[in-house]
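Appendix C. Worked example: 5-nitroimidazole antibiotic resistance protein
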Amino acid sequence: MASPAYEKTPVNTVKRLGKERGNYDYKNVHSIVNSSPVVHVSFNPIAADDPFPAVLPMLGVTGSFTSQDADPATSEQDLYIHGYVGSRLMKQSSASGDDQGTPVTVAATLMDGLVLALTPNHHSCNYRSAVVFGYASLVTDEAEKLYALELITNNMIPNLWANCRVPPNKTEMTSTTILRVKISLASAKIRSGGPSEDRHDAKDEALRKRVWTGVVPSWTQWGEPIPAKATLVEEVPEHVESWRALANRDGRVGAYEAAVEKEK
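Step 2, the predicted output written as structure tokens:
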């Protein structure tokens, strides 16, 4: 049985090495977006004197307010984005007269390693990337806004929301804006394994003896927590320390697995 996936169209179809690396499953797209510490949101400004597309680094996570228990690996999701009320995208989405919302493209990338080959043309990276196309609208319902804020907070560190002063006060709720991106199309692209060499270089024993090839694994490493000067808590809370240890372990394991998965 095929996994639930986004429709392939000319807009979201992966062109280069698409059959080998392209993926459209909800599971891959949503997990890459949710694992990225920062997503980059691009849009076309409405100002007539601004000729450049805009790109903003933001916090985002997938979710479904109407089906909060739905599994993101198998269900349709919206993308919630957190931002300051005065930012260009937030103002533009608020002022948009389009019922669909502001068209946006959201990109997320996780790097798993540098792939070093015999020649510069074959150097590469192991990575997981996702691109989402959709329409961003301002979340005005307070219950949905609180849901999205909790979702985004807990996507940073599990159970972080419950270990803070919550709910936010009126001033905080007013100054914070949430956009809901209704996802229309999306795709993922994943590369793993070792270098792919030119066939002539691969037969050159002298070259192979002279040039080192292989993979340098890469992952996000979360360091030792540094307490704030004002904190009165003597030890790092369990929800932070357990998450840090697990995230560091999983990141390292995943990077090394990506390095050898398709090694020839």
